[in-house]
Structure formats: C-alpha cells, structure tokens
Amino acid sequence: MSNPLFSEKAFSASRTDYTDQGVMTLNGTINKSILLFATMLLPAAWLWFKLGGGSNLDYAANNGLMTYAISGMVIGLISSLVMMFKKSLSPYLAPIYAAAEGLFLGAISMIFEAAYEGIVMNAIGITLLVFAAMLLAYRSGLLRATPMFTKVIVFATMGVGVFYLITMIMGFFGVESFYYGNSPMSIGISALIAGIAAFNLILDFSFIEQQSNAGAPKYMEWFSGVALLMTLVWLYLEILRLLAKLQSRD
C-alpha cells in the first residue's frame, strides 16, 4: 500500500489484541472519517474567522498565522507517529490529529485565499465530490483495486514522492522548479498528481474492506479513518495548488 499507515503487518498485529468491541467495518471507518473531517474543519474555521479568512494576510501573519500552522503540523506528526506504534490509542489520538491538521490546513488555506479569492471553498467542494465519486465507484464495482491497478497506483505514488523530494532539494539550493509555475506542463503535472491522490482512495477503501473481513478490532476504524484523512488532505492540497495555477493564468 502507498498509504504509510496501511500495512498488512500493522493490522495483523492488531488482530492479536483482545477486545469485546467487535470488528471494524468499511461503513464504520467511513463514518469515523466523516467525523474526523468535521473535527478538522472546526479549528480550521475558528482560525479562519479569528484571522480574517485571508482578507488581510499581513494582519494574520502578525497574529501568529505561521505559529498555528507549524504547531498543527508538529502535533499532527507526533500524534500520527504515536498511533503507528500504539494503535489502540487511535480512538483518543485520531481527533487530536484531525484538529491539528485543521490548524495547519486553515493557515495554508488562508494564504491561498489571500491570493485567489474564493479558491478555498472551490477546493473543498471538489475534494468532497471526488471522495464521494470514488466511494460510489468502489461500492458499485466500477473501480476495483485489482493487482494491476494497485501496482500502477503504488508505483505512481512512489514516483510522486520522489518528485516531491527532488523539488524540495532543488529549493534548498535556490533552484525553483517549473512545478511551481503555471505553464501547461506544470498544470498537467498537478492534475496528474491530484488524479493519483484520488485513485489512492480506491486502494484505501479496498484495504479497509480486506482488514474488516479479516477481523481487525473496532478501534482500527479510527486508525484507518486517520489514514483516509491523510489521503483526503493530500488530495485537497493538490486541488488547491491546481486551482491556484489555473487562476493565475486568467
């Protein structure tokens, strides 16, 4: 699997835990994901209204915008790492992770909104539509995680990771990647990465269903919900980046 939280080894270890709460299900995990998404939106909305929603970026910057962003990123990283090693704590740490991501995304979204008015609501709407479409496609059998499909998406995701790393290294040496521009190639790559992120949802749904059938404990719904939220956050950021590139050409 391309999602860092989804591994057969992690779930097989959890199946040895005794619990009387039952086993995880795909529906239960989707419900947990929706709850975590709502939890993420609350601090993002709070920060948005507290700092002016991107209408005055200087005011936001002078009142701790980047502090909120960095704090959210650090807390989210720590909570996700703890969950990786102590999955039974997921019901308690998953909401903390979601709230921390909300602060981070709220700050990032305000920066984009300051440059392109209305872009954030469009990106949120498209992200939710893509999620619903992928879930419907999976449920209906239109898209399935066949061995070939899985192999293609996993290798494509690894390629995106390498591309991100190269771009970051170039930035350290003061070389600006064409990826940050608004050329047709840059827009095409952003659209491709957003598509890969969307298709990762199919792999996530399939893995969750497999582990549900294998008898993973109920608390793993929260763990899997965090994994789904990670994919959604990646998808949202790529859609946000793509829309920004398209609007900058107007």
Report Rg: 19 Å
Largest sheet entry: none
* Range of strand content: under 5%
Structural class by helix and strand composition: mainly alpha
Overall morphology: globular
Mean pLDDT: 89
Number of strand segments: 0
Contiguous uncertain segments of 5+ residues: none
Helix content: over 70%
Describe this structure in words.
The protein has 250 residues and is an all-alpha fold. The chain has one domain (23-248). 77% of the residues lie in helices and 0% in strands. The protein has helices at residues 8-14, 26-50, 57-62, 65-85, 90-115, 119-140, 147-172, 184-213, 220-248. Helix 2 crosses helix 5, helix 4 (65-85) runs antiparallel to helix 5 (90-115) and helix 8 (184-213) packs antiparallel against helix 9 (220-248).
Key terms for this structure?
250 residues
Can you summarize this structure?
With 250 residues, the protein is mostly helical.
Show the helix and strand layout.
Layout: H1 8-14, H2 26-50, H3 57-62, H4 65-85, H5 90-115, H6 119-140, H7 147-172, H8 184-213, H9 220-248
Helix pairs in contact: 2-5, 2-9, 4-5, 5-9, 6-8, 6-9, 7-8, 8-9
